[in-house]
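Just scan my protein:

——
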Amino acid sequence: TKSVIKNIPWITGNDFTVERGQEQIEEYISTWDVHSSWLHCSEFLREEELKYSKRYLYRVCWSMPTCRKPIPRATASVYFVIEISKIKPTTLPVEVFFTLESTRLIHRPEQCNFREKWLKDIIESKIILMERL
C-alpha cells in the first residue's frame, strides 16, 4: 500500500510575502503526523539574492516540554527554503524544500511525508552528546 503524500497548494510568486510564506509553512506543518505534545515556533531568517532566483529562509524549532521539564533539554530545527524564480512566470507556485538540522538531505513537500522520528533522533543525539561532555 502506498501512503498518501500530504501537501498544500503553495502560493504563486506574485502573491508571495515573507509573512505569507511563514503562514504557508505553518499550514504545511499542520498536515504532519506529529504527537500533540510537540510544540514549535517558526521564524523568518533571511532573504538570499541569487542569479536566477530569490530564496527566503525560515526555521521551525521543535521541542517536547513536559510538566516535569518545562524547559526542554534539546530542540530540533527544520529549515525551510521558499524559492521564487526570476526566469519562470511569477504566476507559478513557489518552490519549497526543507532540511533537518544536521542533515544534508533535501526534502520536497510534494515528494515525501514528514516523520516524527526525525525530530526524536535529532533530540536524542543532542542529549547523548551533552551527557558525554
The two ends are 44 Å apart (CA to CA). The chain has one domain: 18-132. The helical segments are 18-29, 116-132.
